[in-house]
Amino acid sequence: MIQVDPGGLDIQVKNLRMVTANQIHGDMAVGSAQTTDFIYPKILIRNLPVFRSPDPFAVVRPGEVLTTVFLSLADDGRSGRFRVVTNLDETMAKQFRLVPSNPGLEVSPLEFRLPFAVEGILQIGMGVPQGEHGLAAFIGKRQVWKRETMIRIVRPNVGLTGFVQGVSAAERYHRPGDTVQLYLHGSGLTSAYASALNARVNEMTMGPAAFQFISASQMRFTFQVPLNAPLRGYGVTILDQKDTELYKKEDVFNLVPPNWIRGVQVAPPIKPGQNGLFRILGRDLSADFVRNLRLGSDEPGIELKNLRQQDASVLAADISVSSAVAPGDYWIHLIHQDKEIQPPYGSLIKVETP
């Protein structure tokens, strides 16, 4: 038996109903005793938890603050737009204010999107010292929220103004022989710093990296993967010209085997009673692999046939959805030699509402 644990003090789950073979819907009722908090529902089968929602929903009581998050940061790293998640009426909004822990931190006039959001810009003055600084929220004289570590001011680690704070891959999954494109994220960067930076792959030598300036918050660089590189995850370290480590991150990109499946798609979107094209996306897909690949669905009204290879990265099949199929999400099973493939980007398709 499937159950839902709402994960809250005073939250009830009602009206669970099956919408598709792969989708159950329900309603959540929030009681008056529920506290302000992030809520992570759990799914239980035979009273054992099998899944916890990675993305919460939130409950905010009137006159309280759930959290404050930055929406964006300026390229120089000295200001940022933030949002306070709260629950205010017009009377409370007139008394609502934010007080930084240091007078050198300036908060712009607040923009109210009642009842649940307040936005503004936090500016760091030149005299604010390094270290952690906080923010407190008041309604009148009553403090309703406080965070001691809202921001952390650090010394530049590239030149006089630049700070390196992240690395990401344009595409996470690659094959040996690929060119891996990566992005350096930071603040206060200039084009002059492109020649002052270096990078290396942690697990094996993949040659030097040349940096290309994009903006004060981003640079681009690449590595050429050797053909003999082992299939595994790889991390990246950013260094200056003296080989001083500025930033290090593990598991930035992965090398995958041949006949690797990335995910699936239906294009154009399909509705009940329609036919369409189902695609499987991957890398180095062989004809032998395709011959032994089977497709299936838990919904009898969804039929997949005529699987064929378009190229080494794309397989295609004809998909038909009967008019009796309910709109919703459906899991397409990819079976190769009696083993189900679990693509990193999933194999769910969506049947659209007519």
Could you describe the 3D structure shown?
- This protein is mostly beta strands.
- It has four domains: 2-57, no CATH class; 65-153, Immunoglobulin-like (Sandwich), CATH 2.60.40; 163-255, Macroglobulin (MG2) domain (Immunoglobulin-like, Sandwich), CATH 2.60.40; 260-351, Sandwich (Immunoglobulin-like).
- The chain has helices at residues 90-95, 287-291, and strands spanning 2-5, 11-20, 23-30, 37-39, 42-45, 48-52, 57-59, 65-73, 79-86, 96-100, 105-107, 111-113, 117-124, 131-139, 142-153, 163-169, 173-174, 179-187, 197-201, 212-215, 218-224, 233-240, 245-255, 260-266, 275-283, 293-297, 302-311, 314-321, 328-336, 339-340, 348-351.
- The model has no long low-confidence stretch (mean pLDDT 95).
Could you give a quick summary of the protein structure above?
3% of the residues lie in helices and 57% in strands. It has 354 residues and is mainly beta.
Task: Describe the secondary-structure layout.
Elements: E1 2-5, E2 11-20, E3 23-30, E4 37-39, E5 42-45, E6 48-52, E7 57-59, E8 65-73, E9 79-86, H1 90-95, E10 96-100, E11 105-107, E12 111-113, E13 117-124, E14 131-139, E15 142-153, E16 163-169, E17 173-174, E18 179-187, E19 197-201, E20 212-215, E21 218-224, E22 233-240, E23 245-255, E24 260-266, E25 275-283, H2 287-291, E26 293-297, E27 302-311, E28 314-321, E29 328-336, E30 339-340, E31 348-351
Parallel strand pairs: 17-23
Antiparallel strand pairs: 1-5, 2-3, 4-7, 5-6, 8-9, 9-13, 10-14, 11-13, 12-13, 14-15, 16-18, 18-21, 19-22, 20-21, 22-23, 24-25, 25-28, 26-29, 27-28, 29-30, 29-31
